[in-house]
């Protein structure tokens, strides 16, 4: 039997049995059986490294364990991080650790700094601990998200529970059991849960049932192809179709008031979903936000991080957000080309057009990069103004007044 790379647990079990039989037979060192046993051992070891790799310990779990080990209470931890409210939010995974906090925790609790800087793993949220009155029921009714036929005689909590049940085949608010990576504002959390659920409901209606997403199919070359679609007036719709062919569903759904939400990347039973709000109806904003979420799909979405939410605030996973920004910019304009371009040096209208033509991307993307890097949104406004992308997706954009 020819030996091959192990692909699944069944193949692993079969080869493990072969290895046991060969080991029991105690073959001579120069025999074919000994050679076969050596190769099988390498294959088994390789598979075990990938299949059973140890995860980095969670920093919050480490803090809780160390506090218990030392017989300390939450009030003791509060003296380390500065206040009771701060300690409560950290241990509840609602607040990230600052450099100063990491130093203090390392000094007082003797927890290795490299463990403390690891990102906390998502933890289940118990729906029974939620304050159902905080969901924006009135706005959800106004937008037609809630079933009007069920509204008669129902409480707001009943309506919200029914709404979330639609996101689960098992009629339970499964979405609520997941932490949304990127949400820092506690006041907006409930509205963002509702928005994400709405995106999932729409994604399931739009999804191509005959196309399955394959991990690794969002390559750098594919991202460059998406970038070039920005040249076309119908580029956003073409991008939606291109993504659908890869098993990625794109949904445009305006943000709820006071969430300042840009978009999200969600893993829905193995199928990536990208939600965009079009909070700003500009060409460069649409394409950069789409690419940012695609980088999350390509590099970050997985079992530990099933949902990335991007708000106009500092994320609680700064490293991954920074990486998404860097790679999104690179997909449109490679850094080496950017630094040597006339557009970068002169910031002139003609130079922007020339670089956009060379890279076959929309000039607004080049103009938008200059605006972001200089923090000057007054220059090149003629190239990055209102786009009308909302009309393409037949949604009403709300701007940033809320």
From TrEMBL:
Pfam families: HTH_3, Peptidase_M78. Residues 63-116 form the HTH cro/C1-type domain. One of its GO terms (molecular function) is core promoter sequence-specific DNA binding. PROSITE patterns: HTH_CROC1. SUPFAM superfamilies: lambda repressor-like DNA-binding domains (SSF47413). GO terms for biological process: regulation of DNA-templated transcription. Signal peptide: none annotated. Belongs to the short-chain fatty acyl-CoA assimilation regulator (ScfR) family. This is ImmA/IrrE family metallo-endopeptidase. It comes from Piscinibacter koreensis. The lineage of its organism: Bacteria, Pseudomonadati, Pseudomonadota, Betaproteobacteria, Burkholderiales.
